[in-house]
Specification:
single chain; 401 residues; alpha/beta; GMP Synthetase, Chain A, domain 3; 9-stranded mixed β-sheet; 4-stranded mixed β-sheet; 13 strands; globular
Length: 401
């Protein structure tokens, strides 16, 4: 009996003996971001940011550079990731990578070749963000310094996450999202695009980190649209919010809505509990959808001069917001239908899951069906409160004078 109990205990001890492939921290450099460009002779240029963890901690910082950015050109991304010790002294660890930046040129030529490597490699996790560098190289984005965070890739990751939570304009595209879209007949992939505001040539300098107004600053720019793995264009940043909403990922946002019969006067609605529901059908090769949007919110500012002590004012503002959202959502969807003629929103995925038999008849021609699909939008807005005040001090000031 004792021997029977001893055997599994010995096996457990062996399993807890430690990692077989561990590496000492002093022997590795953690990669936080990589950038992919194309050279003039059609080679890949891989740029890697490796961090000096000691310099990221104020207690241990000795005044050295917090990270190093190094570039190398070659035939494939897979090869280049293993050749980086041409410039780095330590082994590179890619498992903690947060950002992959793809240049606009490389994205237009196609992303499937190096996406295949990233998805296949066992040391690279799938939770990093994929973005496009617009009107500048991907390496330049990775080299641009920032005052508050010493690593440019960590700054960009935090920036995108904050923007998503506060305004909702970032779809937070990860590796699995791109792979699933590339292999699906019902949806095409998208990626957030960034650019450099100011003088890109001054971005890598230490002086850029010390200025109140940096000479170069990486800003979110637009939403990149793909067809069959190749970038075909961009949507304005405002449209990315409606994309995120339709994909069911919108947390918080804000709308500035012009008052009736009052030019340049607006109410601002801060929205939460944003929900979307898509219903539709396919008949005789023609698709029709109805999008139902729901949101709750509170009034953040009121320039329209209506009395907020009256229930009628809230109802009026709710109707005003509903019409505005319906109009803007429909315009955004129609823009993609008419200009790019592809489905990036996932309408095809809905039919694939709920009307598989009929969807199979148009599976290989879905984008052509979608561009002519009829889409109706119905929004329901519920105003819950008016922030900290009901009656504005502005009206009291006017009454005083």
């Amino acid at each position: 009996m004792k021997k029977i109990l001893l055997a599994p205990m010995l096996i457990m001890v062996l399993c807890l003996s430690g990692c077989w492939d561990y590496r000492e921290l002093a022997d590795v450099t953690v990669v936080t971001g990589i950038a992919v460009d194309k050279t003039q002779n059609n080679k890949y240029k891989l740029t890697v940011e490796g961090i000096n963890a000691q310099e990221l901690n104020n207690r241990t910082a000795a005044g050295y550079a917090p990270s190093i950015v190094y570039s190398l050109s070659g035939n494939s991304i897979a090869e280049l990731t293993q050749k980086m010790n041409i410039g780095f002294s330590r082994n590179l660890i890619y498992s903690h990578m947060r950002i992959l930046i793809i240049s606009e040129t490389a994205a237009r030529e196609g992303i499937t070749e190096f996406i295949d490597f990233l998805e296949r490699d066992r040391e690279i996790r799938d939770d990093f963000r994929l973005i496009i560098s617009r009107r500048t190289s991907a390496a330049q984005i990775l080299k641009t310094t920032y005052p508050f965070q010493k690593s440019s890739s960590l700054k960009l990751f935090k920036q995108m996450d904050s923007f998503r939570r506060n305004w909702g304009g970032n779809p937070s595209v990860q590796l699995n999202d791109v792979v699933n879209a590339l292999t699906s007949p019902a949806v095409q992939p998208v990626m957030e695009a960034v650019t450099i505001q100011g003088k890109a040539s001054k971005g890598p300098s230490v002086e850029n980190m010390k200025k109140v107004t940096p000479d170069a600053l990486v800003v979110l720019d637009s939403l990149g649209i793909f067809r069959e793995g190749k970038l075909i264009g961009f949507l304005p940043l405002n449209d990315s919010r409606y994309y995120v909403w339709l994909r069911g990922k919108l947390d918080h946002t804000a709308f500035s809505i012009e008052c009736r019969k009052q030019n340049n006067n607006f109410i601002t609605l801060r929205a939460y509990n944003n929900k979307s529901k898509i219903t539709g059908h396919l008949e005789d090769g023609k698709a029709a959808f109805k999008v139902k949007l729901q949101l709750e919110g509170f009034l953040d500012s009121n320039h329209c001069g209506k009395d907020l002590n009256k229930v009628e004012t809230y109802k009026e503002y709710e109707k005003l917001a509903e019409k505005y959202i319906e109009k803007e959502m429909k315009l955004s969807i129609n823009k993609v239908q008419k200009k790019y003629k592809i489905d990036v929103y996932g309408f095809g995925e809905y039919l694939y899951r709920n009307d598989y038999k009929n969807f199979k008849t148009v599976e290989h021609n879905w984008d052509n069906v979608f561009k002519n699909a009829k889409v109706e939008v119905d929004a329901k807005v519920k105003l819950r409160r008016t922030a900290l005040r009901t009656k504005s001090f502005i009206s009291e000031t006017k009454a005083k004078h």
